[in-house]
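Repro:
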Amino acid sequence: MNLHLSTFLVFLLVLSGCATVDSSRKPMPITEVVKLSKSGAESPVVIQRIRDSRTTYALRGSDFSKLKANGVPDPVLDYLQQSFVDDLDLSTRYWVTGAGVGGCSSCYPQPVDVDTLESGYGQVPATPPGQYHPDKPQGTPAWVPYPQQVPSAGQMSVSDIEQMAKDGVSDAQIIERINHSRLTHVIGVGGTSAIRTQPVAGLSGSELAGLHGQSVDYPVLDALQGQFLAQFIEVERLRYMNLGKAPMK
């Protein structure tokens, strides 16, 4: 068996194995993340607790600023964003390959209301876990605008958004521009060709939190996070569709 074929078969076996899940585990409430952070626990300790619980959170852009105001340090914010992106990458892979985890509520990013520090299906209103959508990966939050509109306003960077906010451009105008632009320097920053389990989150949690201190309002942060995730999903969809299509040699 040639190298290319064997590698692709191993990849398919990994995919089929990943769909085996433990639906009995209980996600860690977001309030515990805040309590640990406020208790003075070091960032690696907080991150390990979240990792051990295998919990991810569907956080909007403004949530990172609110969590930081509640004492959650930057490394933890970055982990929360990265783990969210990792889960969306996995759900996109399942969507493309026809796999899934069904209605396992603990297997998806948990809906969050940071204002009340509540999280989890049944606690925060959200699309039921595992509900099938032919046009998006299961578990994608309803506030992520995917499928996305075809960008018609060119490219836009995070620095552009920050500058527009400082220049006094209205939130509505900035959001309109975000929703019709292709974001630069935040998508595919870890490469788009390699098989990997942890794509790089080009827009970090600490960066989103820091933008609020640079005059960027919450609605703009929410729009930015939504577009970032929508464009990320599309790039990953195309990447997984193309895997294995190269000629076997």
